[in-house]
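User: Structure with NAP, tokens only please.
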Amino acid sequence: MSEKLGFIGLGIMGKGMALNLLKNGFDVCVWNRTESKCDELIAAGASKGNTPADVAAKTDIIFICVSDTADVEAVVLGENGVLGSLKAGSLVVDHSTISPKATTDMAVQIEAKGAKMLDAPVSGGNEGAANGTLSIMVGGDADQVERAMPYLQAMGKTITHVGDQGAGQSAKLVNQILVIGTMVSMGEALLFAEASGLDLQKTLDAVSGGAAGSWTLSNRGPQAIVRDWRPGFTIDLQQKDLRLVLEAADHVGVPAMTTSLAFNLYRSLQTQGLGHEGNHAIVKALENLVDIRIGE
Ligand code: NAP
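Assistant:
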């Protein structure tokens, strides 16, 4: 019989992920800080917890998908947090992208309760969350990864146990270094195409299937050329991930130059009040340097 599941954080990602657990027939108790975001999940068959602690008291495995390190700490360690009523033998699975160091520190507190923690950050965008096709990078004990596997498989397609606690978060930062390089290149390429008088749709058609093809180009390129800046992943959250990369790169002593460039381009957009837009709006930061607009 499957275990009782909790899901905390029903934002762009968490909503789709929790819905996929329900679609696969699992028993899910949800909580979200903004209560109204629970409605769709309850209509789909979830029950509702009153607080993160209430979710932990009622369930065996608690999945979390909130924004930043301090937010995971708030729902786990804070007032009415998971830790307050965590049962011995329970498992906490954190899908948020946060600091690897804070993750291992939190795991110590969770284990002091006789429970376990996996860090399991995800990649694949809101599309992957909705379709159950996420890539999930998991850090923690092998027996707990095996325990969580049926549920992770309901939410993702590529599930990789990359190492001990914290390793999932480090692998996710690797993912973000790769994604951001492609995002900067996409902005640069679209600006060049516009300035060269190319038809942007035909240009995307021409290059997407070749060696330059990527998830970013296929999913965010079509949005960018029609100036649709609605977020799959906001600039503010992208900036948070780049900060995590820069901190971790400093810690391990390696350069992260493209990450640093993108961090500063996004900062310029944040100062214009655009932090809520999608991360593909990086093209706007490049447009501002030359006063050219793509797709107009
Ligand atoms: P989002 O739509 O902004 O949702 C954030 C969620 O976190 C909301 O449910 C929010 O509650 C909750 N939250 C934030 N701070 C909180 C706090 N202090 N206490 C309680 N709840 C809090 O973000 P998202 O795009 O789903 O991203 C969630 C995580 O997944 C992030 O770590 C992000 O980096 C990662 N991620 C996102 C994507 C993507 O493409 N979007 C892809 C991979 C990974 P409210 O509803 O009350 O605001």
